[in-house]
Amino acid sequence: MSSPQTLVDAVYELRRKVDSEETFIRRTLRRHFREGAALLDVGCGFGRFYDIAVRAGWKYTGVDSNPDTVERGRAAKRDIHNAAEFAPERKFDALLLAHIVEHFETDALLVFLERYLAMLAPGGILMILTPVMHRGFYDDFDHVKPYNPEAIRQMLCRSTAQTRPFAIPGEYRELDLWIKRDPLWHSYRTTRLNHIFSIPLTIAAIVSLGLIGKTTGYGMVLRKTA
Q: Is the pLDDT of residue 214 over 60?
């Protein structure tokens, strides 16, 4: 039996319904995809976005490097694969990279993207969710480097001339940029005092439809044009 929902839980849950990574994903699926489209969730973890994709009528495939999460996903009858063994015969209509790129140094990220972007069909959609530098960025021990939107544009959209060429397959066009704002600077210090101050700020963020708050990340949508 689950514990009763507290006021704090209720306020935070309402905010997730108004302006959140989940609402960004739902909006992107609705705008750019037909029912039955094939989505590859790269670094899917425990499948945070699985229900959203399935309810939208998508064909969901997940891939992860953690064998425990892969086993757990398969136990739940989901199409989940171990990254080391993943070699799909088809290309996907969409790729989701949710909180992935910030775990790589530049050279390793280029190798990673070269592999997975080759699995995206021409005309397909790439969705990236990632934090920017903020006070809580390095609270995640394995966070390596933040990549701002312009850095992604330089790499995938060739927005500026670079002395070093990027061997990334395909050409990309930016379709959407959503800015993630939190009522307080993101931190894992979840003391009672934090919640006392964050509730009115969270309500202000809800009323403003996400315009009030500190920038802590973003979601970017790009189309593979060739």
A: yes
